[in-house]
Amino acid sequence: MAETKQKAAATQNFVPVKEIRDGIMILKDGSLRAVLMASSLNFALKSADEQQGILLQFQNFLNSLEFPTQIFIQSRKLDIRPYIALLEERYKAQTDDLMRIQVREYIDFIKSFTENVNIMSKNFFIVVPYSSGAFTADTKILGILSSAKKQDIAAKKETFENNRSQLEQRISIVEEGLLRTGVRVAQLGTEEVIELLYKLFNPGELEKPMQLVKEEAGAQKT
Predict the structure, then answer these.
(1) CA 86 vs CA 63, 92, 170, 186: distances in Å
(2) Sign of the Cα pseudo-torsion (72, 207, 28, 34, in order)
(3) What is the 3-state secondary structure (H, E, C) of the chain?
(4) C-beta separation of 174 from 185 below 8 A
C-alpha cells in the first residue's frame, strides 16, 4: 500500500495540473488552461478557390492572435468492441431471417476487416492559456480556518473568476477565428478534460470515441 502511494505521488510530480475547476485546468504555477475540441475539415475535397479562402482565413486567424496557443492531434487505435456488441444485440433481436443473415455477414466482415487494418480515431484540440502572474492554485484547507485564511480564500476565488473571464475572452477569439475557416470548436468540460488527460498518460489503451456534451460546453460559455 505504501509503495503504491509513493508511486502515485511520484507520478503526480510529472503532471503540471494542480486541479480542474469548471472545465479549466489550473496548473501548479497558477496559470489557467482551457481545452477546445475542434471539428475536422476535408481540405482535399474543397475547390481551389475554397482552399485558398480557408488558408487565407487561417492566416488571418494566426496573425490576429496576441497570445500563444497549442494545437495538437490525438491519434489512437479505435476500440471497435462496443460497436460489435451493439450489432450482436441487433442480430439477436432481429426476427426476419434475411435480415439476420445480412447482419451476421456484416458482423463477420467488420471483425475480419479490423483484424487486418487498424481503425484509428483522430481528435483535434486547441489549448488556450492565460496567466496573470499573481494567481496561485494552492487552495487546500486543513483544520479550522481563521478569518484571515477565509479572506485569503475569498480573494483567491475572486482572482480565479477574474482570470477565467480573461481566459473566456481568448476562447471567444479562437472560436470566432476558426469558425471563419469552417472549423467548429467546443470547450471541454471537467469530465472530458479528465478523460483527455487520462488518455494522454495512458497511451497504450484503446480509444473510445469522445462524447462531447454540447449542452455542458454551451453552458460553460454563458
Answers:
(1) 47, 10, 41, 28
(2) positive
(3) CHHHHHHHHHHHCCCCEEEEECCEEEECCCCEEEEEEECCCCHHHCCHHHHHHHHHHHHHHHHHCCCCCEEEEEEEEECCHHHHHHHHHHHHHCCCHHHHHHHHHHHHHHHHHHHHCCCEEEEEEEEEEECCCCCCCCCCCCCCCCHHHHHHHHHHHHHHHHHHHHHHHHHHHHHHHHHCCCCCEEECCHHHHHHHHHHHHCCCCCECCCCCCHHHHHHHHC
(4) yes
pLDDT tens digits for range 181-221: 999 999 999 999 998 888 888 776 655 555 544 444 444 44
Q: How open is the CA angle 30-133-135, to the nearest 5 degrees?
A: 45
CB atoms within 10 A of CB 190: 16
Read off the pLDDT of residues 82-126 as tens digits, 9 standing for 90 and up: 889 999 999 999 889 899 999 999 999 998 888 888 788 888 999
| CA separation for the pair 59, 74 (Å, rounded) | 23
Phi, psi of 197 (to 5 degrees): -65, -40
| C-alpha cell at position 17 | 495540473
Three cell numbers written together for 151: 479572506
pLDDT at 134: 46
